[in-house]
Amino acid sequence: MSAHFLHHPVRHPLGEEWLMAYAAGALSEGQSLLVASHLSYLDDTASRLAVAEAAGGALLEAVDPARMAPEALANTLARLDETRQETKAAPRAKDQTNDVLPPPLRAWLGRGVDELNWSLLGPGMKKVKLWRGGPNDQRLWMLRARPGIEIPMHGHSGTELVLVLKGSLEDEHGIFRAGDVEESNDDRIHSLRTGPEEECICLAVTEGPTRFQGWLARALQPLIGL
């Protein structure tokens, strides 16, 4: 499989535990969509899924069959097959903005980036909320920010996964470009900056509300809804 819209290798991939959970069907809809989208950028998707499938199979064998839903194995196998199909190379779209969407996300949205209902998040930043549900009040949303924007210092109520689709993000752990995933948890406080080269578009899954540090961001949070 070729990562058809990637111009450099993914340097910050998701850990194997996320792939195993994805293969086992243990993730929420929002998390599953982010993982499937991330897999679209990897050159070794097939081998990664094979490892996850083998590990997931071992876990399934260890589970009491009476505690499993009758369709659990069929659903897992179908999920793996769907991912293999979604991560095959697809023709590049004529619209270069829309082309930043990986195939699973493009199929799920059914429309392009410019057709989404973006709303103001802060100076130079827009957001669109896509889904809410699953355990721990998960929120799936997208960020669109101009180059060189400072995202205020904040923490999280649980796990946060941010998949970069276009441009780059930078924090104390490095630079995250298209295909990379920045993962944070509830004991980490950090700030982010978008790269100077072009606008940044990201897909994120968060658990519970974001914990902003600044008084202004906290005051505006009810309006932001994240």
Automatic annotation (TrEMBL):
This is Anti-ECFsigma factor, ChrR. The lineage of its organism: Bacteria, Pseudomonadati, Pseudomonadota, Alphaproteobacteria, Hyphomicrobiales. Residues 113-205 form the ChrR-like cupin domain. It comes from the Bacteria.
